[in-house]
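thread from #wetlab-drylab

HS: before we spend reagent money on co-crystallization trials with S-adenosyl-L-homocysteine, can we at least see a predicted complex? here's what I'd submit
DV: go for it
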Amino acid sequence: MNEAPLNRYLQRLIATHGPISMAQYMAEVLGHPEHGYYITREPFGPDGDFVTAPEVSQMFGELIGAWCADIWRQMGTPSTVRMVELGPGRGTLMSDALRATKGVPGFHEAVDLHLVETSARLRDLQAAALQGFAPTWHDQFSEVPPGPLLFIANELFDALPVHQFVVADGTWRERLIGLNDDGELAFTIGPALDGTPTRSPDPVAPAGTIRETCPIGTALARELGAFVAEQTGAGLIVDYGYSAPGFGDTVQAVQGHETHAVLSDPGMADLCAHVNFAALGDAARDGGAFVHGPVTQGEFLNRLGLRERAAALAAAAPSEASEIRTAAARLTDKSQMGSLFKVLALSSAGIAPAGFDA
Ligand code: SAH
């Protein structure tokens, strides 16, 4: 019997209202105001459920800070720039980025820091990490005031809810979560759709084929694209995911660094889906932005000078040299985060973001 606090709530919800989509399931599991994963759990670090790139090494945030300062220069050093992080976690990335750019003349004076974060508990940690930078918090990116923009979203899009669709009885149907005969959460399928679920038609997919869409993610990419196009600026979307459309079921639950059954212990394990970078790029282009990449995280960081930064840090602290080498490898090796993680940049016209092909 599954006694996770959210389980009974979901069972009651489904018993009363019928099966729910994977998107609603993800939204409840991650964001339920009382029992949601990001509300109640400490996901990050060795004692948590997963480790993100900025938590692996300070080099990640430092290089992204330098990337931002370079964009600011390309924009003509505007006297105010909105520096926005979406889903800042513990605030580690932004704190490393700002420390690394202390010496850039005029940059800190121009930075107006905005954080888009839904978890009150994480907002407290971000406030502690970013003391002195007077951030403004928002529930949604749409609340950020207009102005030249720099933005970064690391491992945010993978947490945004996806819908799943499956081919059954010769037609596309939504994959839903209902209750089995014992009243436990179980997958089921909904009525036939009118057309195909994704933008690219996929009429001949064989039975059992699964496609995912992330309407909240594509809407956000479009909004970010429109903002940079209209206000000038650039930003980075970093996440694990795929560059070409056409993947299957990518939703996974992770607890204590191990994968976990998606429908077990809702709210006790992280739930995420691979990011469809082709769809995000299309949406940002629809919004009016120039889209760069995606390139792999390994390529991106090496082009920004990760190896040189690692060598400099190791020379300054020889006793930590092997730790620094391990962290650099973890961020860039194909067998680790280097290849599955990808980086997409959005920009206004006339900006050549570092780390991407010209
Ligand atoms: N960027 C951080 C944290 C990644 S975890 C890092 O790399 O370490 C995902 C982050 O996004 C958390 O801070 C979580 O609370 C936040 N988050 C999740 N869903 C969100 C949403 N819909 N809007 C804004 N923030 C969200």
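DV: Residues 38, 44, 52, 54-55, 86-89, 93, 116-119, 122, 154-156, 159 surround S-adenosyl-L-homocysteine (CB under 6 Å).
HS: ok that's useful, forwarding to the group
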